[in-house]
Amino acid sequence: MGWDGLYASAFEGVRNSIGGVGKVLLAYNTNIDAIRYLKGEDLEERIEAAGRDKVLPYSEELPKRIESVPQLLGSILWSVRRGKAAELFVESCSVRFYMRRWGWDELRMGGQVGIMANLLGGVYGVPVIAHVPQLSRLQAGLFKDGPIYVPKAGNEGIKLVHPKEFEAGEENCIHYIYEFPRGFSVLDFEAPRENRFIGAADDYNPNLVIRPEFEENFGEIAQKAELAIISGLQSLTEENYREPFETIKAHLDLLEERGIPAHLEFAFTPDETVRKEILGILGKFWSVGLNEVELASIMEVMGEKAIAEKLLAHDPVDPIAVTEAMLKLAEKTGVRRIHFHTYGYYLTLTDYRGEFVRDALLFAALAAAAKAKLGDVRNIDDVVKAMDVPINEKARGVEGALTKEYSMKDGIAEVNSYQLSFIPTKIVAKPKSTVGIGDTISSSAFVGEFALR
Ligand SMILES: Nc1ncnc2c1ncn2[C@@H]1O[C@H](COP(=O)(O)OP(=O)(O)O)[C@@H](O)[C@H]1O
Ligand SMILES: [Mg+2]
């Protein structure tokens, strides 16, 4: 069967079985993304009002965090001048107030938990229990309808309610996203490409604050779950990781004890100490999902510099180098499943066998293409609308290399007593949206795999 046939039957398989998946526990990061599309004139007026001389130095060198309005405007200019993304923590209340009054054009669900809750619960109808660090009305309103639950502590223990019924009126965790197009001009500067600056007015996610309901009743909450997906560790730093790490380890031990497979969705983790610590607990997870930059950054802290460099040297990424890196990671940590995604193909290494591993990847690639193509995926039948998106041409060479090296057949090979599963992905040439596409891929593949079992 060709890839199109495999795609079609994988979709049918997952659509027919996904209703049987039990509750998925999602922790820990959820926030509000407030997007402002910058206007040159407005920004210029603000810079003049704050004092151009005070603002400009920060466009040369970013501050460590934002404590004043000139720092905020200067940091935005820093991004514009270079066409580069940057994200800084906004500590000062008066700057937070300034950003709030400046306003937004669009509010979006932010944080991996929030994004995956809306996809799994709101689109696929798979019940989820979400950790939401702060549940404000604004935050609650961003959850889709469907079987999405947050635990509420009451007299008779934990009750699961939809976030809109939680009614706690907690704080807003807002990530203000200032977007600009290529060629955007302000003062004498012009943006070489489109990008964004993010000011995080959020005291909870960067410190990975875990809610008391989760601290105190994790056993009871976990009892209700069949699978777990963990994310949000990337924002931790050497200064603040210790306390949350103790809780996370306890949570993982409990999940393992109950036989609940947990997936870690990796994201780029700038702090090297935290990256090493994550490596240290990876064996407690069933599964991990990552891209080429993230895999290379892990190889670096494992002392595998040569492989790390190889992973970033070619386009498309050299699949033999990826396989070697995944083998090293699996052998070092004991993690049972590694799902690698890059532009054009996915590879998964598992210590178990079956076509369902590959088929779950196909379902995930279709979901990713649907999201890129449509912007918003409303229900599982929207996913199949991506069937006509062509398979990435460059993936043929990748498939050829894997066939030659590992005698791969229909995307499946045996490598060092592991199963290697490969799929070429469908790539949307002009995507409507790429926000949260990695989270879409990983959660669809992980949950899809358990649906197909
Ligand atoms: N236009 C597109 N069509 C289909 N898939 C895409 C497209 N652009 C990116 N992707 C997929 O999305 C993935 C992005 O995931 P990742 O790098 O983890 O970023 P993030 O987690 O920020 O979404 C890529 O590896 C690629 O597989
Ligand atoms: Mg990602």
UniProtKB/TrEMBL annotation:
Principal cellular location given in the protein's record: cytoplasm
Binding site for ADP: N291, H341, T342, V428, G438
GO cellular component: cytoplasm
An annotated Gene Ontology molecular function: ADP-specific glucokinase activity
Stored InterPro entries: ADP_PFK/GK (IPR007666), ADP_PFK/GK_arc (IPR015990), GlkA (IPR031299), Ribokinase-like (IPR029056)
Ranges in a coiled coil: none
A single BP term in Gene Ontology: glucose metabolic process
E.C. number(s) listed in UniProt: 2.7.1.147
Keywords (A to Z) from UniProt: Carbohydrate metabolism, Cytoplasm, Glucose metabolism, Glycolysis, Kinase, Magnesium, Metal-binding, Transferase
Enzyme class: transferase
Cofactor field: Mg(2+)
Residue positions of the active site: D439 (proton acceptor)
UniProt cross-references to SUPFAM superfamilies, sorted A to Z: Ribokinase-like (SSF53613)
Annotated positions binding D-glucose: D33, E87, G111, Q112, H175, D439
Binding site for Mg(2+): E265, E294, D439
Pathway(s) where this gene product acts: Carbohydrate degradation; glycolysis
Co-factor binding details: Binds 1 Mg(2+) ion per subunit.
Subcellular location: Cytoplasm
Catalytic activity, as annotated: D-glucosamine + ADP = D-glucosamine 6-phosphate + AMP + H(+); D-glucose + ADP = D-glucose 6-phosphate + AMP + H(+)
Membership in a protein family: Belongs to the ADP-dependent glucokinase family.
PANTHER family associated with the record: ADP-DEPENDENT GLUCOKINASE
Function: Catalyzes the ADP-dependent phosphorylation of D-glucose to D-glucose 6-phosphate and glucosamine to glucosamine 6-phosphate.
Name this protein carries in UniProt: ADP-dependent glucose/glucosamine kinase
